[in-house]
Amino acid sequence: MWDNIWYALLALLVTGYLLLDGITIGSGIVGRLVARTDADRHTVDAATGPFFLGNEVWLVAAAGITLGGFPGLESTVVSGMAPLIVVAVAALLLRHAAIQFRRRVPSPGWRRRWDTVVQAACVALALMWGALGGAVLGALPVKDGHLSPSLDLLLRPVPVMSALTAVAVLALHGAVFLARRTTGPVAGRAAGLTSWLGTAAAGLGLLTLFAAAFDARTRDGVPNALPAVLIAVAAIAAALLAARLVASNSAGAPLFSGLAACLPVLAIGLGRFPQTVVSTYDGENLSLAEAAAHPDTLSLVGPVMLLVLPVLLAFQAMQWWAFRTRTHERSPVYF
Predict the structure, then answer these.
(1) What mean pLDDT is predicted for residues 139-146?
(2) How many CB atoms lie within 10 A of CB 230?
């Protein structure tokens, strides 16, 4: 029982990270497109500032659940994908540093250079998470509980298309957020971007879905294909609907762009349940029960996590409620 609860908790934390930090990643991708002056950039920074560090708590919690609750998953997927994860962590750190450094010198050239670094780091983050999702979606060459890093895992059509889709989807999520969260020219430009970003995200999502359908390794890695496909189609529809809702000035647009960002996690999780890893070698699959820690460990720590989670959710809800108003060029920046 506890392994199923922890698996659901891991899915919740990963989806929460993509839903919330996907906003700051996406805002970083489109920030230079919607902020043409330093005042515009101030507006963008003020919109994302209150949530910048809090959103990453979800990623830290997901990493803790993986390391403590699923040692089998950590020793295969996390270790095998270590180079990709290292690049993603480096991009996270670079994004933090660039956002802090850009405000240290009041020089337009200095700030433009750091804005470029922020954008590049956010694009790299989106590419890495998308490629990781596309790679783990299929069957993996796991043997004796070991996955060897290989470019072949990432350069197949599905991981490549998944990486490009992630950039478009997170850019859409960030643009929708800025359209609803800011005022003036920034909000107008962000709203204008959402129409073609929604189309691009949906188109790339469809291409990823078709690539997965024609890739034998991906088909082998998704034994429960029907729920995975239905959830993927729902994510594509959510991307299109989010763009339309922005055009009609509806408050529901961020919900649907968020669904487009986080539903693929559920597609991967449900598509292979109760397996956590499907191997290309016979008899080497890693089931949920095999990947999880000892039941005594899960039952001891599990209730603590279930107590901490409502506190985390309550804090995030309070934070979003406190900073629910639109920002402008005179709003405070929190970094």
Answers:
(1) 80
(2) 12
Write the DSSP symbol of residue 52. Answer: T
pLDDT(1) > 80: no
Structure tokens at 241: 């609907």
Q: What is the pLDDT of residue 129?
A: 93
Q: Identify the helix (H) or strand (E) that includes residue 287.
A: strand 286-287
Question: Over pLDDT 70: what percentage of the chain?
Answer: 97
pTM above 0.85, yes or no: yes
pLDDT in tens, 282-320: 877 888 888 877 777 777 766 777 777 788 788 888 888
pLDDT at 335: 65
Give 286's DSSP letter.
Answer: E
Which DSSP state fits 293?
Answer: -
Question: Would you give the end-to-end CA distance of the chain in angstroms?
Answer: 43
CB burial string 294-318: b at 16+ within 10 A, e below: eeeebeebbeebeeeeeebeeebee
The CA–CA distances, whole Å, from 294 to 6, 63, 163, 225 equal 12, 18, 34, 30
The helix/strand/coil state of 70 is coil
> What token pair was written down for 271?
């598509």
Instruction: Please say whether the beta carbons of 9 and 309 come within 8 A.
Output: yes
Pairing of strands 286-287, 275-277: antiparallel
DSSP-derived letter for residue 276 is: E
